[in-house]
Prior knowledge:
Chain A has about 300 residues and is mainly α. Chain A is about 75% helix and about 0% strand. In chain A, helix 7 (about 155-180) packs across helix 9.
Amino acid sequence: MSIARTNRMTPYLFLAPAGLVLLFALFYPICYMIYASFLDWNPSQRIGEADFVGLRNYTKLFSDPSFRESMWVTLKFAGVVVTLEMFLGVGLALLLDRNIRGMSLLRTLFILPMMIAPIVVGLMWRYMYHPTVGIFNKTLKSWGFDTIPWLSDGNWAFASVVIADVWQWTPFIFILSLAALQSLPTSAVEASKIDGASGWQQIIYIKLPLMLPVLIVTFLLRLIDSFKVLEVILVMTNGGPGLSTEILSLRINRTASEFRELGEAAAMSNLLLIVLLLLTFAMFIYNKAQDARAARLRAVEEEA
Amino acid sequence: MPEIRLQQLRKDYGAVNVIENLNLEMADGEFTVLVGPSGCGKSTTLRMIAGLESVTGGQIVIGDRDVSKLEPKERDLAMVFQDYALYPHMNVAKNMSFALRLARMNKSDIEKRVKEVAATLDLTAYLDRKPAELSGGQRQRVAMGRALVRDAGTFLFDEPLSNLDAKLRGQMRAELALMSQRIRKNMIYVTHDQVEAMTLGDKIVVMKFGEIMQAGTPEQLYRNPANKFVAGFIGSPTMNFLAAELIEENGVLSAKGQGFSIPLPDARRASLQAHKDRNIHLGIRPSSFTEGPGGLKMPVILSEYIGAQSVLISELGGQQVAIEVNTVVPIRAGEEREFKVQGDEIHLFDPQTEAAL
Lengths: 304, 357
């Protein structure tokens, strides 16, 4: 083998270990899962003993009202949660983007929820939502109001998990928006002041449009994440009452462990994976488009 | 278009005092240039006038209104920034019309106004482009256009040409001068470049460490600098400074230094009498030297040929001196030539206070 050829092989040599890990830890399970989704497979069987049923798991899913309910809950949850978090996070960033004494401490406090493990967040909120000893109902009671069935009524339970998620993940959007805001060209904002823009007009016509690329990526990241929530809801409601908070990942978990339908669980996981892949792909396309645009502009600039 | 007055203006950043007590009047329709080295407070002063920096003390009066506590938009001014500060997400037309749209001017008027201004600035072909798709010079013109469209009472410029290359800068400087002649509004222009200041300003304000060193017409500043700093700052190549002593020889007052003695004109005798036999600093512009017999013998250490002129680096009494001469035949380094100094073009400064004598 010539030296040149060896040199060309070097990068692949260094990539090989990581590639091997990926092959076993990611590619193999995914193939396994895809294969399993075509089987009628019970956990007591070995995979070889399971019957091949073709697309039956998938067709069954689409006619299963519980699955459709679960899908709807997931979409609703992701939509509501991400919308709220975007508004609050960006709003907070706009509010806290100024130099006031103690602001850095305040910013640190704001991002604390994000650092707490989801299981702990779930437990914490479950205790706070407790019908009799939880802080919310206790406070309501001491003020003379009726108590609220936080986790025992379907609608309230959905609202409760939304509140917990918003509490935990708004900081994520907050810090990214704040970073975007602080990297905006100050002179453009100043120019708009001179041009006569009020505080709101500066936000609407200058700051938000300039933050948009970051906001879009943040939005997609958060959306992808919100489809995968499990622990917080598992701990708080375990999907109940009824199916009111049973998001897809919980349903997958239950189908596999409770209903012992590994094939169906695999089919559901595949569907979730496809949704997430589409979102990731959207983000990828968006980034590519941004890069292409930046490259084109650079080219124009160099030409000029 | 009202006159602008800065009265006892003060600016502190925390405990640091940047401008202590600034007083300045700008007449109606005057082109005022604030010039000085970095950190002299010129940009801060401009930004205070614009309302982008708060005023710690004193007043900014435009016409008969004290605007020092008002928002920028209430001050009736337009501004051109050093980095142009265009809105990157809007095209040229949108950039230029932003202020008018905020002011809820009607659409057809906006369009007409933008087209007019774009035509005067050669921007008509670029109205649909985004700033990133323009060259530096075009961006600079858009920034100008954005200010012009507004028809504001006062125009502020914060080093608008410093991001352009030398050739474009000269071109834009000329365009700016033409524009200011045409529209005759209050203009306040900040720069560190004394050539820009000299060519553009009706009035130049030289600043240093937050203080005004001298304010006056370009000619006043060039001919009668109030102190050594202004003398050294205005004019290119820079004025030569030499240590000397003021003495009287045979009834003639002259500046005597190491290896030279330059007689001073009789007209200055009265005012200089008090400084006789004292150390002074002598300021001679490179252009005040003329070559000719009977002058000081000076070696040519370096010759910078620029074309019609040459700048020679020479030595006088152990101190380096620049001499600007018309190039008839290029003078080579290593020669020794005789140069005379025009006595009435000599500047004298007090070595302690640096004030002109």
